[in-house]
Design goal:
The complex is a heterodimer. By secondary structure, chain A is an all-beta fold. Chain B has no helices and 11 strands. Helix content of chain B is 0%, strand content 51%. Chain B is mainly β. The chains are: A mainly beta, B mainly beta. Chains A and B meet through β4, β5 and β10 of A and β5 and β10 of B.
């Protein structure tokens, strides 16, 4: 199975900050990586697929990059609505696997 | 708009069974693969099972293989998850999720989830 490792597990930041979350795969997954945002009590929301394809309606301050085994999610200017937990997920093959999550907290 | 509405969660004793349903609307049911994903209280996301748009292919996480069965009914636009031999480790919110197509293997729409609690 492909293991997905996210870092950091918690990130404290302020509104307006630029933040980056890293996701590493235990083997080469090409660009088959998705990112989700989840707020407490809600289902996850798809932000990015295929490492860098922004989903319709997702603000342009979100961006994804990477290929192979190392990927990043960047929020260029953190907004109040962005405080949430973020998960990466490999969509290279079954079983599908998620990273452990990164909680973005208010500093 | 796409809607996925789960039902069937509840409290069950260890060793018991439960069947979850997910009523789908707002898209052509027979064109898309569907998944179950779960989240234990305070924990991360875990993919559980997938069924192809035509029902011919199914995949399961090792943690549920042999105990859970995914199925779909095109006449009712409904996805199911039959869960048998439940253990306390199966306690979680269970989400149904729509695949981007029938093979992209990521989730572009999610239901609101249904809570399954396995406890004596």
């Amino acid at each position: 199975d492909i293991q997905m490792t996210q870092s950091p597990s918690t990130l404290s930041a302020s509104v307006g900050d630029r933040i980056t979350i890293t996701c590493r795969a235990s083997q080469n997954i090409s660009s088959w990586l998705a990112w989700y945002q989840q707020k407490p009590g809600n289902a996850p929301k798809l932000l990015i697929s295929q490492a860098s394809t922004l989903q319709s309606g997702v603000p342009s301050r979100f961006s994804g990059s990477g290929s192979g085994t190392e990927f990043t999610l960047t929020i260029s200017s953190l907004q109040p609505d962005d405080f949430a937990t973020y998960y990466c997920q490999q969509h290279n093959g079954y079983p599908l696997t998620f990273g452990g999550g990164t909680k973005v907290e208010i500093k | 708009q796409v809607q996925l509405v789960e039902s069937g969660g509840g409290v069950v004793q260890p060793g018991g069974s439960l069947r979850l349903s997910c009523a789908a609307s707002g898209f052509t049911f027979t064109n898309y693969g569907l998944h179950w994903v779960r989240q234990a209280p305070g924990k991360g996301l875990e993919w559980v099972a997938f069924i192809r748009n035509d029902g011919t292919n199914k995949f399961y996480a090792d943690s549920v293989k042999g105990r859970f069965t995914i199925s779909r009914d095109t006449s009712k636009n409904t996805l199911y998850l039959q869960m048998d031999s439940l253990t306390v480790e199966d306690t979680a919110v269970y989400y149904c999720a729509k695949d981007r197509s029938s093979g992209w293997k990521y989730f572009d729409h999610w239901g609101q989830g249904t809570l399954v609690t396995v406890s004596s």
